[in-house]
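Sample 1 of the test manifest.
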Amino acid sequence: MIRVEVARKTFGSTEVLRDIGFSLGRSECIAILGASGIGKSTLLRLITGIDRDFEGKITTPPRMGMVFQEPTLLPWRSVLQNLTLLHPGLCDAAALAALDRVGLADKARAFPRQLSLGQQRRLALARAFAGKPELLVLDEPFVSLDADTAEDMLALTEALIAETRPATILVTHSEAEAKRLAGRILRLVGRPATLACAPQPVPDRSKPGRHKGVA
Amino acid sequence: MGCSLPPNKAQTPAAVVRALSLGLLLLVWVGAAILTADASVLPAPWALAEPFGREMASGALPFHLGMTLWRVVWAFALAMSIGMALGLAMGRYPGLDRWLDPWLVVFLNLPALVLIVLCYLWIGLNETAAITAVVLNKIPNVTTLLREGARALSPDLAAMARVYRMGRLARLRHVVLPQLAPFITGAARSGIAVIWKIVLVVEFLGRSNGIGFQIHLYFQLYNVGMVLVYALSFIVVMLVVEWLLLQPAEARVRRWRLA
């Protein structure tokens, strides 16, 4: 069970977030939508514990995985070590299997700089899932990708979520991405940012054509 | 001397360039010695072979070389570890930086000679004073360099390490130190060069062994040949350290950049 209750978050005298509360069941996927600069990333930093300076209470499981806007790899360690160093419980065979799942098995000994940007992103994805996370946090993971690569990444993410079934929080400004991955959408609006209204369930996503034009 | 330079300099192997460049320096020396035409002012390189052999045979050269090397190793290890810890702390904590920065400026601008003399006066003419003086001279440089490195640490990687719950030690080894590596090798490189020069001054002023002491002795005897024998022996040792230890270590640390 994941509970997020943020009463107030300020940077100096600027209030950024106010009265944000939601909870997340096991294997539930929610999306947080909002314009850029509204405070989505700030909220994620609170949820993941990167930033602990706020008023409120957040309960998260111990095993977390996160995909950042940039790949954020350790460029001085091999592709394989980028998994095993962060997940000490992961043996080499399991790490290789995780690499194989994202199509990077033959790159295990390479350094991240030798990979293409798309491959680096897939490695970041493998890293997030390798620890069998109970909570997965995606911070605009498909931003700045060309359309084809973004589609590949989205499909791969979808498949991995279906296999591992973590509770997932996706932050994005793309309505389409949110609808495709998430069962529930929260909107951040205003300044200081707060949740727009009661979360609405998303209609059946087997008929994507119905949602065109929603924006 | 029939050394024709290869036509394409860009493709000359580094080792060849290194040898040629040192050979050229030797040539300048020979030329200067011939022009001086006075072995008591500047002996030719080959005139040093005999005194070098004599000092080696008597065991004096290895002994004094060993003493100096021992002091360099101690001073280097202490200055690097204290300077790194201090620089890292000052780079990470701006409050501490505000307090310690004026001290750093004072020590950076304190002449080596003043520190050495004061250490000898306050601590006494002993090994502790000698090494303390060298360490105090070097710490500010290491600290300044490492502080820059610590300020440049990536906040993104720190966030990543936090989300994935990396342990303190793993974070230091796999996240922080690799980012600091260029600053550490820079400090080590300039450190080793500065330290051995200061060690010689320290020995010159207040020790009864080491290369600096021998140079002091032969300076008083006006024996240029022996001064050169001792100085050059140590330069050779430091070049070997540079080529066999420092450069390979740096290449290993930089491997991921070149891959």
